[in-house]
Amino acid sequence: MTWAPHLLHQAFFGGLAAAGFGILFNFGLRALPWPAAAGALALGVRAALLSAGWSLESASFVAALSCAAALFPFRRRLGPAAGAIALAGCIPMIPGAFFGDALLGFLAVSSPVAQHADATLVKSLQSLLRVFFTLAAIGAGLAIPSQIFGRSRLTQENAHVPQHLHRL
Questions:
Q1: What percent of the chain has a predicted confidence (pLDDT) above 70?
Q2: Inter-CA distances, 24 with 88, 92, 121, Å
Q3: 95-104 long-range contacts, Cβ below 8 Å, gap at least 24?
Q4: How many CA atoms, within 13 angstroms, populate the side-chain half-sphere of residue 25?
Q5: Model pTM?
Q6: d(CA 105, CA 118)
Q7: Which residues contact 97 (CB under 8 A, 6 or more apart)?
């Protein structure tokens, strides 16, 4: 079980990062455990799938889908904030290292003394495409549960949510 410490590490720091994004999204202090749990779930699922040999894009899709689906039963309690909580939980999965590689490669190609410009450009485009497809996979994973279970039912159910819970 050598993957267990890595999985726990990813889940812990994914939850910590998602709680930070919850602060940026102006969630109240009482609501911060929700994005932390969503981030821990999302990063934990993605780490498990990556260690099983899945690609980054497919693992991110399944992790975002599981995060949004896990929050769906709590939609009555969370109200409209359920989608924002799922989003805050998935933001730590955005591959910033690939985006940084793409930007640095494009800057290197645009310099006056560019060496190996063809190989650098191809590597930069590959990194940028990985970022794009990972973002698309996360977005699709977040959107599918609400499309399957119906947005109109969610709106009707929120009519009975007390006002103080709408401000999560």
A1: 88
A2: 9, 13, 35
A3: 95/56, 95/130, 95/131, 95/134, 98/127, 98/128, 98/130, 98/131, 98/134, 99/127, 99/128, 99/131, 101/127, 102/127, 102/128, 102/131
A4: 24
A5: 0.83
A6: 11
A7: none
